[in-house]
Design goal:
about 75% helix
Amino acid sequence: MKKIETILADLEQELDERMQEAVNPPNLVMANQLLERMFKQMDQAIIFDKTIRARLEGELEALREILQSPDASGGAKERLEVFRNFYQESFSNGQIV
């Protein structure tokens, strides 16, 4: 789904910008809003395999926990990359429409 790819790019850019700021902890309000949009888009996606849906949702939930933790910089970009790679692999294999 094109919307998910767009949100992924926006979220990655937002994380890059916030993690480079000198503010500690970083202001992640926009990142959290983008993550919520991602959850809504995932609800609308057609995913043929329930285990794939569960893993994608699990990755997003883990990212949510990182963003809400006091040390949000610890792994947010890496977790987003894991989600992106699995999502793209599943999409290219025809498991997501």
